[in-house]
Amino acid sequence: MTLGFSVDELLPKARGGGQLKMGLSKLSEGDWLQPNPSTAARREGFAEFPDGAQLTAKALEPGEELAEMLGIKGGLIEAAMAHHEDMCLLTRFDGEEHYRLIGTAVAWPSDWRPADKMGLPLRALHAPIAGYEEQLASGVDHFMAKLQPGQIYGRCNWFVAPTGEKRWLADKPAPIAFAHVTPENAGETLFVRSERQTLRRLPNTGAILFTIGIYVEPLGALSEANIARLAVAAQTLLAIEGDRRGAPHYAASLSAFAARKDQA
Question: CA angle 35-165-127, nearest 5°?
Fold first, then answer.
């Protein structure tokens, strides 16, 4: 199965609200990473956000293994610079059962700062996500423990952001960030951001590589089916995790824009 490499391809396969699910698809080697990445864009991204490169001592050997597997010299950072995807490494410490974040090469984060997350276990990494501990944490821990070398799994999600930049660090409260959005301009002022995430275990070190491919499009550039899908999902968010993702401040405009598209 493939997930695709665009917002329009990813959205139908992402969770639309309700109970949290991993929603994993098994991928082939050919569907793992985006082909023909812009390495110039990646170099620029890391130059603008040097804090995205965070390495602990435990990340050095897995990073070298990853780079060798991808046919390049260096480690985790060089691997991420040569590909479209941001890359993170996780491993288990001696005597522990849970995985911790040990290295990041992230040029285009979705409202998180790698330096704040280094060394944290998975449950702490996902603590801001409403329902994660109750609905998903045990399943994720079990999956990570059982993941075998050679297997590649992917999933995707989505956010509505007030910016079309690939790097999104929300530096304003949601009421201010979305204040300019109206039903009339939502197609140009709301941006749909999808993360194409993959997981695979490195065979020698046993570390797990987590990749995040970022895709962003203005709402109005998406298919009518996806615009309608987002309008329904945004209303669902209002009752579940809307405050964290800003839905109360854009949902009405998004829904009104979708209704107008449907009537056109």
Answer: 90
Which phi and psi (to 5°) does residue 241 adopt? -140, 30
SS3 (DSSP) at 119: coil
Question: Do 198 and 211 form a contact (C-beta atoms < 8 A)?
Answer: yes
**DSSP per residue, 156-214:** EEEEEES---SSB---S-HHHHTTT--TTTHHHH-EEEEEEEEEEE-TTT--EEEEEEE
Supply angle C-alpha 49, 100, 26, rounded to 5.
85
Q: Are 86 and 143 in contact (CB under 8 A)?
A: no
* Residue found under tokens 């995205």: 52
> Beta-strand (E) ranges in the chain?
25-26, 53-55, 86-92, 99-105, 153-161, 191-201, 208-218
φ and ψ of 26, to 5 deg: -80, 130
Q: What is the largest CA-CA distance in the chain?
A: 61
Write out pLDDT tens, residues 61-101.
Answer: 999 999 999 999 999 999 999 999 999 999 998 888 788 99
pTM passes above 0.70: yes
Q: Report helix, strand or coil for 244.
A: helix
